[in-house]
Amino acid sequence: MPQSKQPDILVVDDNAENRALARATLEDEGYRVRLAQTGEEALQLFQESPPDCVLLDIRMPGMDGFAVCARIRSLPHGQQTPIVFLTALRDVDVFDRALRAGADDFLTKPIRPTELTVRVQTALKLGRMNAELRETYELVRKQRDDLMRLQLQKDQLSAFIVHDLKNPAGAMDLHAQLILREPQLSPRGRDSALRIRDEVRHLVRLIMNLLDVSKSEQGQLVPQLTRVDLDTLALEIATALDVKARSANVKLVCEIQERYVQADEDLLRRVLENLVDNALRHAPAGSGVTLSSLAAESGVELRVRDAGPGIPEGLRGKVFEPFLQLEHADRESTRGGRGLGLAFCRVTIEAHGGSIWIEDGQPGAVFCFRLPHG
Q1: Which CATH number fits domain 3-128: 3.10.290.10, 3.30.499.10, 3.40.50.2300, 3.40.30.10?
Q2: Sequence-separated (6 or more) residues with CB below 8 Å from residue 45
Q3: For 24-33, how does the pLDDT look when each residue is reduced to its tens digit (9 = 90+)?
Q4: In angstroms, how far is CA 10 from the centroid of its own chain?
Q5: DSSP alpha helices (H): ranges in the chain?
Q6: What span, in angstroms and rounded, lies between the C-alpha atoms of 268 and 225?
Q7: Rg (CA), the chain
Q8: 326 pLDDT band (50/70/90 cuts)?
Q9: Using an 8 Å Cβ cutoff, are 50 and 76 in contact?
Q10: Is 71:101 a contact under the CB 8 Å cutoff?
C-alpha cells in the first residue's frame, strides 16, 4: 500500500490486549493506526484529525460505544467516516442498538485477524463509493444485517433451549433413580426405569451437541486438555449404553490397546457415546459393536466398528453434515447422521487438531478418528 495513501484507522477499546492485536494486525497490512482507551480520548483524536475508519468497542467505562458513535456522527466528517463496532455481546438488542447509533458494521469478539482485515477493507471502500454505488451497498448491507439478526436470534434460541431443557431432563433422571431404589420394584419396572435413564442421557447429549456445534460456528469451542484414561472411559461408556445394547441384542466390546490420550474428557466422552450409539442403532441383532484404541504414528487412533449396512465411499464425508441421513435401497432403515450427533463429532475432533473418517468394515462401517499427541 503506497505510503501517500496510507489509511488512518482509529481503534477505540479499553482492553490493552485487544488494542495491541488490532494494531499489529492492521499495521501489518500497511495501515496507520491510532489508539484510544476511552470514548473521550477517541473524540479528541477524531477532532484533531478525522480518521478513515473507526473501530469502536461498545462496553467501555464512562462513555460507551453507542454514545461515542452518536457524537462522531455529529462532528465534521463524522457522517462519512465508516464505524465498525467491536463487541463480545452476541445479542440482537445490542446489534439493533448499534445500527441505530449509526454503525456501518458489527464485528464480534474474540477478534480474528483475517476477518478484522476484511471488514476494515470493506469499510474503507464504502467511504470511497459514489452516491449510486452507496445506494446499492445500503441495500446489500440491509440484507446482511437481516441475516446477522437471524443468526443472533438463532444463537439466543440455542442458549434458551439448552438452559430450559437441561433442568427437566435432570429431574426425569432423578425420578428414575428414585424408582430404581424402590425395594419392591418389579423386573419390568426396573427395566423401564433404566430405559428412562438411557433416553434422558441421550436427550442431554443431543442438547449439548446443539450447544457445542453452535460454539464451533462462532470459533468458541476450545477443548480443555487433560490426560484421559481410555480404559476407564470405555468401561463407563459401555455401562451407560448397556441397556440400549441389550435391548438391541448387540454385544458391546472394548479393546483398548493404547490406554492414555490428551483430550477434553467430557467432549471425548460425548464423541464416543455418539459413535457407539450410532453403531448400536444400525448393528443387526446378534452382532457386535467394538470400541478400540491403538497407537498411531502421529497420535492415538480410536475406532468404532459395527456389522450393519456400510456407507458407500463417495458418501462417507457427507454423513458428518448436520441432519443428513443416507437411504439404503436394500433396507427399510437409514444409515448416517441423525440430528447433530455426527456433526458434533467432526467439529469436536477438529477442535482437538485431529481428523475423523469412515472405513469399510466388510460388513458394516468403521468410524475412526485420530487425536494428536499432547
Answers
A1: 3.40.50.2300
A2: 10, 34, 36, 51
A3: 999 999 999 9
A4: 31
A5: 16-28, 39-48, 65-74, 92-101, 113-128, 131-180, 187-217, 230-240, 242-247, 265-282, 341-351
A6: 10
A7: 27
A8: low
A9: yes
A10: no
- Contact residues for 25 (Cβ-Cβ < 8 A; gap 6+): 111, 113, 116, 117
Mean of per-residue pLDDT scores for the chain? 84
The pLDDT assigned to 297 comes to 82
SS (H, E, C) 101-118: HCCCEEEECCCCHHHHHH
Sign of CA dihedral 53, 55, 61, 66: positive
Pairing between strand 365-372 and 355-360? Answer: antiparallel
| Short-list 129, 117, 118, 33, CA closest to 80 | 129
Alpha-carbon span 75 to 94, nearest angstrom? 24
- The type of residue at 257 is Q
Distance CA 98, CA 211 (A): 26
CA–CA dist 46, 239 (Å, integer): 64
Q: Which three cell numbers stand for residue 312?
A: 458407500
- Whole-model pTM? 0.53
Burial class (CB in 10 A: 0-12, 13-18, 19+), 25: buried
Domain boundaries along the sequence of the chain: 3-128, 154-211, 226-372
In tens, the pLDDT along 253-286 reads 999 999 999 999 989 999 999 899 999 989 999 9
Report the half-sphere exposure of 362 (CA within 13 A, side-chain side). Answer: 2
With the C-alpha atoms ordered 240, 241, 244, 248, is the resulting torsion angle positive or negative? Answer: negative
Share of the chain above pLDDT 90, in %: 43
CATH class of 226-372: alpha beta
Predicted local distance difference test score (pLDDT) of residue 169:
80
